[in-house]
Write a structure and sequence with these properties.
α2 (about 15-30) runs antiparallel to α3. By secondary structure, the protein is an alpha+beta fold. Mean pLDDT is about 80; it is low at about 65-75. The protein has 5 helices and 11 strands, in the order αααβββββαββββαββ. The chain starts with a helix and ends in an 8-residue tail after the last strand. The longest helix has 29 residues, at about 35-65. Strands 3, 4, 5, 6, 7, 8 and 9 form a 7-stranded mixed beta sheet that branches. About 30% of the residues are buried.
Length: about 210
């Protein structure tokens, strides 16, 4: 791997870059311990702090964004969700999945509701057309899809709206392997007051019902 490739890899993996920098700073502090003890202690303290911060950030990222779900491909003939009182009801589609029509930053898209997915996921096409920005600190995740394991980028959806439900500043991943599939994950469902499945209907109850979309 060339120097340029190594540098680009570090940019794509900021936590790894932070860990490497922390190790270098700590090592430099150890080398200066005899000739400059005070600066050496400062460098070692900074390096150790950065290593601890890297470890904590890595744990947080894994806890929030790990998903082992296999995503289904989109199907035709999806029944429409409906609002009844304070609930949004989603009927089971013929393919055995719950599908809904949602708006991502105002752009209408179909979503599969996947209770096995930790995080909401959108396709590259959806991200581009709905102007969904990637996270300022790039974070690449490995994610399984129906087409195999792919690299996914962390992003934030400004507004996702369907039925009487609105989710703002929603964490999501942009995955090329999803093709035209978008997925509602548990990070959105846990924002609701409750959700359940009764027979062939998924019932979603928001904390603050919005006007129907």
């Amino acid at each position: 791997m060339s120097l340029a490739e190594t540098f680009q890899f570090m940019i794509d993996q900021p936590l790894l870059g932070l860990a490497v920098a922390a190790i270098l700073v700590t090592t430099l502090g150890g080398m200066l311990r005899r000739s400059a003890p005070t600066p050496a202690r400062i460098l070692q303290g900074v390096g150790n702090f950065a290593l601890v911060a890297t470890l904590l950030l890595t744990i947080v990222q894994v806890a929030r964004f790990t998903t082992g779900s296999d995503f289904a491909l989109p199907q035709l003939g999806m029944p429409a969700q409906r609002i009844e009182g304070s609930e949004t009801r989603i009927p089971l589609a013929k393919d055995g999945h719950f599908w809904l029509q949602a708006k991502v930053n105002g752009h209408s898209r179909r979503f599969l509701v996947d209770t096995g997915a930790t995080l909401t996921a959108i396709s590259e096409t959806t991200a581009i057309e709905a102007s969904v920005p990637q996270n300022p600190v790039r974070r690449t995740l490995r994610m399984r899809t129906a087409n195999g394991t792919v690299d996914a980028e962390l992003a934030t959806i400004a507004e996702l709206r369907f039925g009487n439900i609105v989710a703002r500043d929603l964490d999501a991943v942009v995955a090329p392997g999803l093709e035209n599939t978008n997925v509602i994950g548990m990070n959105l469902l846990t924002r609701l007051a409750s959700w359940r499945v009764e027979g062939n209907t998924m019932i979603l109850v928001p904390r603050n019902p919005q006007s129907g979309s």
